[in-house]
């Protein structure tokens, strides 16, 4: 049939509304029967075949390769082994291989053969199975156990494994073993040659060991996924070279139900909307699903849910895919179920192979990329990504074709995140760095779930728009080179976590957030497999950062591991057990150049310029062979690195409170960084912690230069016998360094020094405190200032000059004093509901008004 002829037929058919609504055949027949076809002969090679709406065809033979296939009626596969190939297939009626109640039990292979990237069938490109309005794609293979776990460890060189449940697996099946070390590339594919009970014989020996034990309470039994299915939808073999694989795309009004299917060589490299399986802008789609299927060797993602809600993605296996794998695209997707899925080896695009990011964040791919929090993400495993396991990448509003300002993902309550596992990634769980609405580049993302997400005006008002706790439950993470979990925002809780062998356990770049009822293991029995070039422990264990030296030189950074990392705040933990955090001797592959890798249950975000809240806390800590605290000093800087350490204002003011004494032995003590500015004779220095234990209460003093211009470095001097000085360069916001912060002992007196003149508008804030807490500050100042408390509320709150120094000292913060070229102010936290801060604005010429 000529190209123009089938196009005419296609256009006329799509213009007919009854056919848009689905097929209602009045006659049926076999594909092999010439009488059912309009020309009186069965379709021939290279033709575009049209199955009219009044016809139900049973495929009973292997047809020749077709140019295309339009299904307006019904095409169903007979109960026999069958193959069908076409450049493309468009489903306006129904394409059926098995049903949910009667799965297909034979072997079916459907191969997509299109090789023209410029061909565009109904806006869906080529090499496509397209499901249009009213169309139904029903693919239901044998229900089989999609994946299981090792029941015992297996050594490198072995050609047999023992698993928990291989039921339904057969000789000849292809399986994939996930990496159980830091390197996701240690995943391996093998073919089953024999099965005896739970023991499987493989066609060739394994290159890597694979761990299969629950160690110190953390389940690190490696996953084994089944790749083979009896229904295969695949791109042709040429796809492997071109990266131009097949894809399945369902449009609004279509129905996609797939189970027990293998998707091989699918997805189209570097091309938007060309994914192995793809719900495209369908709105609510209850009853649609992808279940118990496998996706491997994909050139572009694995499962895409785009502008679609209420679909189910359950029990699937994905292996060796490019870019974000299980992918919720625009952030308009909600109420979807992602459950019991396994993802192994999620790869970043490889420019040497002609791959590039489809969106900017693909360069740091996530096995599960969740752009809207109101979805159910339960009992999934992210078993090896080039970057992230689970990424809650929340934009301010939905992007792309779903763009709207009525949906606010960053303020929407969490649906469910429970029972998930992440290992062999860089980061296990990331709740931060969502896409910018303009460029889709990642940006710091503050997840602030509220009762009314649309009420942005009251997004920080806990009375008018109450917060909703985002609880991430029963998360397991191991062998991640970065964080097991990193969360930024407010009102987050991580409960029931079991974490082991991560560079860093948990970091909250958050406030009002906690880790509770959890277990964190530093070094477990899973020693991994260090590659030949890597630095390693003297016990042979692999390290999260194995590139400690370069070109055979000395070890440059031994990167101390830590269980809980203090940052931002107010954050902390309750009832957490820490196991096996001890220093470890590390060495190069030749056994020389040893150094000590430090370890501790608790530390801080290393060398940060940003503030660490002085109210951060530890409560209910227990330790089993674990050093409680290590607050590392910066390695001795080279001359050109001195400024780098000077600029890191945050970590040098690190403080947290030992609420119940479970860390220090004395309830209420503060654990502070070994900085003379924070210590005095009432502190006990613990050299092995590089920290002091102090019987003081600390707050934070913030200094804001609201006039612009560089006044760094700023200094604070504690006015006592030792007069220690803390020098600050400012928090780097856009390079202006206009905000400075330091931890201070409450009730003490300090002197502020700036470079150059004191700014015309200077704001002081004393934070992290309780009513009645105060500090006194002396500021070099020429002339009489205008000073206000809370001027933005009532600019009549102007401070008067005290009649004497004694009156100033006795005042509740409503007086200032000046003498000897200095102005003295007292920042006192007033007794008002919710007040934990005091603010003063100091201006020349009454600029505060």
TrEMBL record:
It comes from the Bacteria. Keywords: Glycoprotein, Signal. Residues 35-152 form the G8 domain. The keyword Signal applies. Residues 439-459 are annotated as: Disordered. Gene3D superfamilies: Single-stranded right-handed beta-helix, Pectin lyase-like (2.160.20.10). Residues 448-459 have a biased composition (Polar residues). It holds the Pfam family CEMIP_beta-hel. This is G8 domain protein. It comes from Meiothermus hypogaeus.
């Amino acid at each position: 049939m000529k190209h123009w002829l089938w196009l005419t037929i296609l256009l006329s058919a799509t213009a007919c509304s009854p056919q848009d609504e689905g097929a209602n055949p009045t006659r049926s027949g076999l594909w092999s029967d010439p009488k059912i076809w309009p020309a009186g002969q069965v379709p021939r090679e290279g033709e575009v075949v049209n199955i009219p709406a009044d016809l139900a065809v049973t495929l009973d033979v292997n047809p020749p390769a077709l140019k295309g296939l339009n299904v307006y009626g019904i095409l169903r596969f007979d109960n026999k082994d069958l193959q069908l190939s076409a450049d493309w297939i468009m489903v306006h009626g129904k394409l059926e291989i098995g049903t949910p109640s009667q799965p297909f039990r034979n072997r079916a292979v459907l191969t997509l053969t299109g090789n023209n990237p410029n061909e565009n069938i109904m806006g869906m490109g080529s090499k496509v199975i397209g499901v249009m309005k009213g169309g139904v794609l029903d693919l239901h293979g044998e229900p089989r156990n999609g994946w299981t776990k090792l029941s015992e460890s297996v050594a490198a060189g072995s050609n047999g494994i023992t698993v928990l449940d291989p039921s339904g697996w057969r000789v000849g099946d292809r399986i994939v073993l996930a990496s159980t070390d830091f390197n996701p590339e240690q995943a391996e594919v093998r073919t089953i040659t024999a099965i005896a009970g739970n023991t499987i014989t493989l066609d060739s020996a394994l290159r890597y060991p694979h761990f299969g034990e629950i160690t110190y309470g953390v389940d690190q039994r490696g996953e084994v996924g089944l790749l083979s299915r009896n229904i295969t939808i695949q791109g042709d073999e040429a796809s492997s070279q071109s990266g131009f694989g097949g894809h399945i795309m369902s449009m609004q009004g279509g129905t996609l139900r797939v189970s027990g299917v293998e998707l091989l060589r699918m997805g189209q490299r570097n091309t938007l909307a060309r994914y192995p399986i793809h719900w495209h802008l369908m709105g609510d789609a209850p009853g649609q699903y992808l279940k118990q299927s496998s996706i491997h060797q994909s050139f572009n993602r694995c499962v895409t849910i785009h502008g679609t809600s209420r679909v189910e993605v359950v029990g699937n296996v994905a292996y060796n895919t490019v870019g974000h794998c299980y992918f919720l695209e625009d952030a308009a997707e909600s109420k979807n179920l992602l459950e019991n899925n396994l993802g192994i080896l999620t790869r970043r695009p490889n420019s040497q192979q002609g791959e590039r990011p489809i969106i900017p964040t693909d360069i740091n791919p996530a096995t599960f990329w969740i752009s809207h929090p109101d979805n159910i993400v339960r009992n999934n495993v992210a078993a090896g990504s080039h970057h992230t396991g689970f990424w809650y990448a929340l934009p301010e509003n939905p992007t792309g074709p779903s763009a709207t300002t009525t949906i606010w993902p960053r303020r929407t309550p969490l649906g469910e995140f429970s029972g998930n596992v992440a290992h062999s990634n860089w980061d296990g769980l990331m709740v931060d760095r969502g896409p910018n609405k303009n460029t889709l580049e990642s940006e710091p993302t503050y997840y602030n779930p509220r009762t009314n997400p649309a009420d942005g005006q009251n997004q920080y008002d806990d009375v008018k728009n109450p917060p909703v706790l985002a609880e991430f439950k029963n998360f397991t993470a191991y062998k991640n080179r970065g964080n097991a979990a990193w969360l930024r925002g407010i009102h987050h809780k991580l409960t029931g976590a079991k974490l082991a062998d991560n560079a860093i356990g948990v970091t909250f770049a958050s406030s009002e957030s906690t880790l509770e009822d959890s277990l964190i293991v530093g070094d477990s029995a899973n020693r991994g497999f260090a590659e030949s070039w890597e630095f390693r422990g003297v016990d042979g264990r692999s390290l999260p950062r194995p590139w400690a030296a370069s070109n055979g030189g000395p070890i440059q950074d031994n990167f101390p591991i830590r269980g809980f990392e203090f940052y931002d705040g107010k954050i902390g933990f309750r009832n957490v057990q820490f196991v096996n955090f001890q220093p470890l001797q590390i060495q190069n592959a030749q056994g020389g150049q040893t150094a000590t890798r430090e370890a501790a249950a608790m530390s801080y975000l290393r060398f940060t310029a940003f503030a660490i809240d002085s109210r951060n806390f530890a409560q209910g800590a227990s330790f089993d062979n674990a050093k409680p605290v290590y607050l590392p000093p910066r390695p001795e800087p080279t001359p050109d690195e001195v400024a780098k350490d000077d600029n890191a204002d945050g970590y040098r003011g690190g403080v947290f409170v030992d609420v119940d004494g479970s860390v220090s032995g004395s309830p209420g003590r503060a654990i502070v960084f070994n900085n003379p500015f924070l210590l005095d004779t009432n502190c006990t220095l613990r050299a092995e912690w590089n920290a002091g234990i102090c019987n003081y209460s600390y707050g934070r003093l913030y200094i804001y230069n609201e006039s612009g211009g560089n006044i760094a470095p700023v200094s604070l001097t504690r006015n006592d016998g030792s007069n220690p000085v803390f020098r600050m360069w400012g928090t780097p916001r856009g390079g202006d360094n206009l905000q400075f912060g330091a931890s201070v002992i409450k009730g003490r007196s300090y002197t502020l020094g700036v470079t150059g003149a004191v700014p015309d508008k200077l704001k002081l804030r004393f934070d992290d405190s309780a009513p009645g807490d105060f500090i006194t500050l002396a500021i070099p100042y020429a002339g009489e200032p205008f000073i206000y408390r809370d001027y933005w509320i009532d600019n009549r709150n102007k401070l008067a000059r005290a009649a004497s120094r004694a009156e100033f000292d006795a005042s509740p913060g409503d007086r200032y004093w000046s003498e000897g070229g200095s102005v003295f102010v007292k920042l006192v936290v007033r007794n008002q509901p919710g007040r934990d801060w005091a603010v003063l604005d100091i201006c020349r010429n009454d600029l505060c008004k």
